[in-house]
Design goal:
By secondary structure, this protein is an alpha+beta fold. The strands form seven sheets. Strands 2-11-10-5-6-7 form a six-stranded mixed sheet, with no helix packed on it. The longest helix has 48 residues.
Amino acid sequence: MRLQDEMLTFAVIMLLWPQLTQGSGSLPVKVANTAVIGRPGSSVVLPCWLDPSLDVSPMEIRWYRPHKFGTPVLFYRDHKITTDDQDESYRNRSFLALREPQSAGLKVGDLSLRLDNLNTDDEGTFHCFVSGVNRYGSAATTLNITVQGSSPVLSVQSKDGLMNVSCSSCGWHPQPRINWKSKRNTTFHPGGLIYSQAENKLTCVQSWALLSPSNFHQVSCSLFISEGDERESTVDIQTISRLMVPAEDGSGSWKALFAVALLAALAMIGVSVFLYRKYKSGYMRAKADEEDQLTVFSNPNMADLRKLAVSITLDSSNICPDLIINSDRNLMNRLVSISIQNLKFHSQ
């Protein structure tokens, strides 16, 4: 009977233990069940709150990284944020935020943290810690940083009748997954896969597959971190194979050379026609302008010229020897004859 009483007491204590510990020394801190996703340069909110809600404005709030309790990401005390011991890498980047737009903030136990200008070093665990006079509580949440790299570059080389297709891309974080597919959307495994890290701590990936042109027409290589956010490139290996491998009689290489020469000739003809039209139009415009000028000078308007008549006074002692004034009062030289109506002579 005594054993049964002890077992019953033990069972009751175990059932009431969470409520007992919560009432005496712990605060019910909650965080998101899944990791928060962010991209470099962006901002995220790490949700953290008390459930049931409680006014935490008079309490201390500390956000910190693992093993860095003394140098917090953010520290709130005495109704304000203090930066005395703050981690330098989070200065001017960390702020208390609202978990939801309608949240009343600290008054209802909202301890959420906003991080600005994210970088890959921010990835990992963050601890949300709150303490009062006799109570405290904490919870940990995870931040994942994702970077989508460049579109894959496909290159093809011929090797013993097969086509070695290589797929490469850089700038990923974390390591992307790779998927090879044929034209019929049939997936196949590559011949090799190598990951490497660049100086900026982002990942480069290179993969390759040795394929037969007779069995594969178009192949695609896609890289992704999460489904629906892929980078893909496609190559037609049958067409490339026909261009790379000449026919047995050697006509393939001659056909390729002829095609290149024909394209070059057409390009030269096009440039020549363009230059001819350009210079011809310029020459015709210049010639038309010249003819207009000749027409103006060969058909002067005498009525307009008479309106411009002026009186001229000549000094007979300083007159040019080549000038001659005839009896009709025309001023002449060996090439030009000018009629002057109001000609006067001045003698010193």
